[in-house]
Write a structure and sequence with these properties.
339 residues, alpha/beta, TIM Barrel, nine-stranded parallel beta sheet, two-stranded antiparallel sheet, 11 strands, globular
């Protein structure tokens, strides 16, 4: 049971190289589901995991060798533009933003752009990209999306067409993708990394259209749920902790049967309101399968062990069933690379 639960966690760590005594290696040996890589440490602004193609290729190879199954999820945010962990500062090509690609709205342009992103990831061994962003650019001044050029367009047709092409390029290279940030971040006026964000008065149901269409077309590998508060969908809980949103809306109305991924569980939108153990329990109870702990907003070298102990306790006390854990494991297995 501990290994099953461990496989439902993705964790960030510090270091451009790791040795046999590092905590992240011990976590992988204990069954950790995956790692998330960053170019810079948000707390110190120092290089984090990536300084050059050769260095990060070696790091990933070492991490994967530590995995007993050989099927470690190696994940990254490689959206393009300003949100690209592989970039010219660490020896990788520059990339257009989603906003620039959406403005061109040419499938040939999108395909070439996506091939560039995928080429960088495939060359080093990344197998899961937290992209594409399919939020609609409803508020162009949104500090988390619009102002950073992270949305293809305010037009759902443009979002779906470009996201579809991007996903197909990823799939051709055996790299899985995640649609984000469900149920729609485009109208926000804040960033959940740094505070509570409420879109109750600005969110539109039309923001579900890209998710609905991509899921129906069979182009979703996973869906990432945001920490947004949206009282149109849940009176009090953020989307990531809400059964109404995950189990009711996403799995029910949109008929999504695949893996659901959390946004960073250490984001201020969560940590400012909930204890870590409570948030973990609520996310899993809501139907989230894969919990991400980026270790960026706060750094905790014990987060794997603490979260694992929390979830084991939830199973032992009957708050979560072994059947629910098994179902989550089966869904997350779809994101793992082949041996």
């Amino acid at each position: 049971m501990r290994r099953k639960i461990a496989s439902l966690l993705v964790v960030g760590f510090r270091g451009q190289a790791v040795g046999p005594n590092d905590w992240i290696v011990h976590a992988i040996q204990a069954g950790l589901g995956g790692v998330i890589l960053f170019d810079r440490d948000q707390l110190t602004n120092a290089p984090r995991n990536i300084t050059s193609p050769k260095q990060v290729t070696s790091l990933i190879a070492t991490l994967r060798k530590a995995a007993p199954s050989g099927r470690l999820i190696v994940s990254i945010d490689q959206e393009g533009g300003r949100i690209a962990r592989l970039n010219p500062s660490n020896g990788f090509p520059a990339s257009l933003s989603e906003a620039q690609v959406g403005a061109a709205n040419s499938l040939a342009t999108t395909r070439t752009w996506a091939q560039g992103l995928v080429g960088s990831m495939r060359s080093i061994g990344v197998n899961l990209n937290y992209a594409p962003v399919v939020d609609m650019n409803i508020n162009p001044h949104n500090p988390a999306i619009g102002a950073l050029g992270r949305s293809f367009s305010s037009n759902a047709n443009v979002v779906v067409a470009n996201a579809s092409e991007e996903i197909k390029v990823h799939r051709a290279a055996a790299i899985k993708t995640t649609l984000k940030h469900f149920p729609g971040f485009g109208s926000a006026t804040g960033n959940t990394d740094f505070g509570v964000v409420d879109v109750s008065k600005t969110w539109r149901s039309s923001e579900l259209v890209p998710y609905q269409r991509l899921i129906a077309a069979g182009l979703a590998d996973a869906v990432l749920v945001a920490h947004l508060l949206n009282r149109q969908l849940d009176p009090s809980l953020p989307a990531s902790l809400s059964r109404n949103v995950v189990n009711g809306l996403l799995r029910g109305r949109l008929h999504w049967t695949g893996p659901v991924v959390s946004d960073d569980m250490q984001a201020v939108a969560i940590t400012s309101k909930y204890r870590a153990s409570a948030a973990t329990a609520m996310a899993l109870s809501a139907g989230v399968d894969l919990l991400v702990y980026a270790n960026q907003q706060a750094y905790n070298a014990h987060v794997f062990d603490e979260t694992l102990d929390t979830v084991v306790g939830l199973v032992r006390n009957g708050h979560l069933t072994e059947a629910a854990i098994d179902q989550a494991v089966a869904r997350v297995d779809r994101l793992r690379p082949a041996k």
